[in-house]
Amino acid sequence: MHHAHQLLDTLGVSAAHLQGGSLGVRSPIDGARLANLSPTPVAAVADRVGGSHAAFLAWRQVPAPRRGELVRLLGEELRRHKAELGRLVSIEAGKIASEGEGEVQEMIDICDFAVGLSRQLHGLTIASERPGHRMMEQWHPLGVVGVITAFNFPVAVWAWNAALALVCGDPVIWKPSEKTPLTALATQALFERALQRYGPDAPPALSQVLLGGAELGQALADDRRVALVSATGSTAMGRALGPRVAARFGRCLLELGGNNAIIVAPSADLELAVRGIVFGAYGTAGQRCTTTRRLLVHDSIYPELVTRLDRVRAGLQVGNPLESTTLVGPLIDQAAFDRMQQALARARDEGGHVTGGERVLAEQHPEAWYVRPALVEMPRQSPLVREETFAPILYVMRYHRFEEALALQNDVPHGLSSAIFTNDLREAERFLSAAGSDCGIANVNIGTSGAEIGGAFGGDKDSGGGRESGSDAWRAYMRRVTNTVNYSGALPLAQGVKFDV
Ligand code: UN1
Q1: Inside any domain, residue 455
Q2: Based on the domain organization, do 223 and 299 belong to the same domain?
Q3: Residues with Cβ within 8 Å of residue 145, at least 6 apart in sequence
Q4: 255 catalytic per annotation
């Protein structure tokens, strides 16, 4: 019905790989089974990492701009197959068509970024205190990069990591979410096409996919040859993985959850604010790590904003994400639906006033989980509000003083994304200042989600501390070496130390 197999075939994944295994894959659109894949045995991980490590030893010697050529070709394959891969994302993850394609666009953009970067992997030269000496730093390839991704961005997050890792000289070994392995196989197939066109100086196993559950991620975390583990997912996952990698002094790049707030100030352009809030809170059915989960509204505009917001919320078209008029697709599975309902029940217990949140389309799709997005007016920022629930629930609270809004915005365990709608310059600057938002992303007059790839992406506190994608995030994928070269005829020691022999 979704033509998933036809799409996979076009993308280069043979039907022979799709049946007979124990890893069942379902579409959240209607619960239909898409495939039964064969999982990667945990016992095979060490061998696979060995293959990646062998690839590293060769790839690190290929000049970076030449490595960039491979990523350029990958970008071409993605451009060519944007519609098909985007549609497969919609089928497997439930995103609306425009967001499915947008995700592939994000992959294309990071490829372009990485191609340019492949000629810009630069270090510093630093003034030496000694005569006739030169001090400099170099950035060398780091090693195998393990990439662990979540269902909600099943391919873009791989691309953020893979495009940078590959130009930096690092092979990638990818453990996608067990809920979205098909898009991973399709992406790998496109990568292999790029590899074929690239020519013979690419080693085998530059990119590999491991299919299965958390035990595979753990095996990557424990393997000393995996120099960087870049993991996107829940805070619980990061808490389990991070210490394992740290125990062997490996490097971790963690992109965990968020509990992102928007402050709406008295001077805000409410038309703009409503659009930013609705996309942030209800787009992607509330299943982005950057989703707007909390709204802090000034008393003076509270009734008007909530009325307008609720009108738009009630009218959002929920349904099949492949239909062009749909704005909110399904939740990923029943467990996600159950967690949402539990949160709403708790909200009521804590004095919240819940609008929406109920299941819809149940008769048409008994095995899919569509909900009307929820707006919950809360009397205060209760323990529930301080938690991340991965669903389209927006908690709305009032504030009176700007300082109060800022304190509430920061008073959650996560620190990923944040925004303020204001036309007051001082408020905007205070929000962005050192004493303002404590998040890795802080925006003015745009929402919390939908960041561009050119900036560094990530957050602090329970959001994990990692930064990936743009800016200088590439440094996480390389190792820094400080070199001092003496071209004098003497051997002066630093700090004026005398050691005459
Ligand atoms: C995620 O939800 O894991 O800023 C990533 C955004 C997207 C990435 C979200 N570019 O919403």
Answers
A1: no
A2: no
A3: 161, 162, 165, 170, 171, 172, 173, 226, 227, 228, 229, 230, 477
A4: yes
